[in-house]
Write a structure and sequence with these properties.
Elements: E1 3-7, E2 10-13, E3 18-25, E4 33-39, E5 46-51, E6 58-60, E7 68-73, E8 78-83, E9 92-99, E10 111-112, E11 116-121
Length: about 120
């Protein structure tokens, strides 16, 4: 079975950067759609970014466009989220997810990680 493990979260000042990683264990996620989500206290889950298995398709939430970059290294079975110019509003638990059905019209996800906390201070 596929397991996803996030890392790289932490505390950073506004304007700083963090790079999150999501390691995939059990099987390669090469053909999978991969995504990052986040959830802040008292808020609903938000789609942050998605990337197709071959990397040809990416999408971003409007709130992070121009600041965050999603990427993957299939040889290392790892998904990344580079977060630059962080803002207080980016504070949340960040989760990675994967699904073999592709990115188009994705409303549910086959696999989820446990999350990693990102805290941005003003």
């Amino acid at each position: 079975q596929v397991q996803l493990v996030e890392s790289g979260g932490g505390s950073v000042q506004a304007g700083g950067s963090l790079r999150l990683s999501c390691a995939v264990f059990g099987y390669t996620y090469n053909p999978y759609c991969m995504a990052w989500f986040r959830q802040a206290p008292g808020k609903g889950r938000e789609d942050v970014a998605k990337i197709s298995g071959d990397g040809s398709y990416t999408s971003y939430a409007d709130s992070v466009k121009g600041r965050f970059t999603i990427s993957q290294d299939n040889a290392k079975n790892t998904l990344y989220l580079q977060m630059n110019n962080l803002e207080s509003e980016d504070t949340a638990m960040y989760y990675c997810a994967a699904d073999p059905r592709g990115c188009a019209n994705r409303v549910s996800w086959a696999h989820w990680g446990q999350g990693t906390q990102v805290t941005v201070s003003s």
